[in-house]
Amino acid sequence: MDLSLFKVSIPSMGIMGAVFAGGLAIASSKLAVEVDPRIEEIEEALPGANCGACGEPGCSSFAEAVVNGNAEINGCPVGGSEVADEIAEIMGVESGDSVRKIARLLCKGGKEETFNRSEYRGIESCKAANIAGSGNKSCVYGCLGFGDCEEVCSFDAIKMNENGLPEVNDDKCTGCRNCVEECPKDLFILVEEDQEVFIHCSSQSEGKDVKEVCKTGCIGCGICAQKCPVDAITVEDNLADIDYEECINCGACVEACPMGTIDTIETEAEETDEEFEAKDQGAATDNTEKEENEANEVEDDCSIYITDACVGCGVCVDECPVDAISGENGEVHNIDSEVCIECENCVGACPTEAIETE
Questions:
Q1: What's the gap between Cα 201 and its chain centre?
Q2: Residue 56, CA atoms < 13 Å, CB-side half-sphere
Q3: Is the pTM higher than 0.90?
Q4: Residue 312 and residue 305: Cα distance in Å, rounded?
């Protein structure tokens, strides 16, 4: 073996390595991009969910956006006010008020309140069923009940109950918007956690059509708007809507709603998993009791009646949201007490004041 070859090549490789290492060191120094250390600090403060709820692809992008002024310090819904305070301290600014938001469902029409208008044999998915003729549920606006929202929830905050409707665990919900974006019926909204009154319906059908397909749908009668002391409720396209900026959570609309569409939901921030399960199991019992009460109420006599002063003009017929009034033109009209919901729309509309209440 010729050792002279090693004597030449080894020093040569050493010299070349030293030259390249020096070049890389110089390039690293000259071409280095300075990174704001606050980005790393903010990323460490974030929960690391990488859920995208902030609008950025991940926590790292959000941290960079905050430092560059392209995102609010309280823009992480998963971290909430606690993380916002940490970020504010890193950035040297005031955190301000940060109100946590949670998801709410705009539907109460489960298996017990609605029915299937056809048999669905497709993919067990809300999106797939919605593509196939808006699903097979009697109400085309209602929850399809396949649980896409439960599947997409990264925080295990949504569970399908026995009635085929998703229930949100307030304690686990982070307001990440995954369910909002996943639902093909747009039935999830995010509201501030201290909001207690909700209209659980998104149907825009006329009242009589709603009653045919759902026992708890909004019929657009407007009683809630009449009873609201702060004018926070309006009715548009046969659907009541609450202005949460004005709502004071008094519950007057809940008591007035003849269909039980409006509910009061107490804050469940301290709710445990066991309590959530117990609530789930008790939901069916509560619904049954409510249906029995409603059935008994239907059997009661209607408090609204038409007097002989009726001239048969038909104005009340047009005003009734559930088609409870009928009669020939020019003759005294009649009210079907089993259909009437006592919204009193006809009372106010009658030009001859022929409709009265007991």
A1: 11
A2: 20
A3: no
A4: 14
